[in-house]
Amino acid sequence: MTGLIVAGVTIVAAVVVGLVVRSRNGRIRTSGDGGTVTSAAPGGRAQDGVAPDGVSADGAALAGLPADVRDALTGEPADVTLVQLSTTFCAPCRQARALLTHVAERTDGLRHVDLDVTDKPGIARDLGVLRTPTTIAYARSGVELLRVSGVPKQEELLAALEPRLSGARRPIAERPEGGRPTE
Amino acid sequence: MSTQPAVDPRGPRFAAIVTTVVLVVVLATDWWPLLAAQTVVFAIGAFVGLRPAPYSVLYRLLVAPRLQPTGEREDAAPLRFAQAVGFAFALVGTIGYAFGVTAVGIVATALALFAAFLNAAFGFCLGCEMYLLLQRLSPRAGSAS
What we know:
Chain A contains 6 helices and 5 strands. Chain A is an alpha+beta fold. Chain B has helices at residues 10-29, 32-48, 54-63, 76-98, 102-122, 126-129, 131-137, 139-144.
């Protein structure tokens, strides 16, 4: 009897968690949303979204980031760099990669970097990321603009980043090939 | 890992549904040999391969012929990882039941059920997406980073 009750409670809990996760999938979060993102990296997330592109905080913001992320940002600077954290064991990471590669190719000033953190748990910990795929948008200065868990929604992401992109945005009609349309 | 054949994503979903039912029956009846069998099923999927996994075989024989073929394919690595996570919980649960520590059996089985149900109902692979969290909780992660 105990087992049956436990089974019922477990399923109810799973329904709740499933609905929460589904509603959070692809939703854009900025630091103002609070709670969900931790400021583990000193200086890394202090001024994000608020500072005018981190003009004065350039060094500090970049220096607070894990080395792999910093390299990704400085290697080929763009207005906005989307750093996607993935693991080998994550199926939606492939969908996110396909979508973001597609979007970045067609948007001026936008770059996409996919970081496989399967063997680099330190990066995920420093950035306060528990779930993959998580995509973090960084300004050129290293300041974090926003982050998205799960597969991002193309239109919402572009709309949120548009003020940060200096180049004119070209309309994106078609969706990328492959990948599952829904989860 | 990338050399593993990709699979029809509906197969694992079907497997998750069967797993959910099996785990509910285990919890309802405390009949641990069934959990032991489920542990073996997880082990085959995780350590041998998805193709010979019993629920995959069942899917191919019974379900797939009734569905439209699909070109959709899903990478096998995340699925096998998830099976390994399921295996760990089912093994702990089986040992718990078998040695009379029913509480351990119930809790471990409930956790496995939680993950299986999320996969069955929402297509959400808890083990896969929470890999980073699992890694952080495991003692190895501390020394690795």
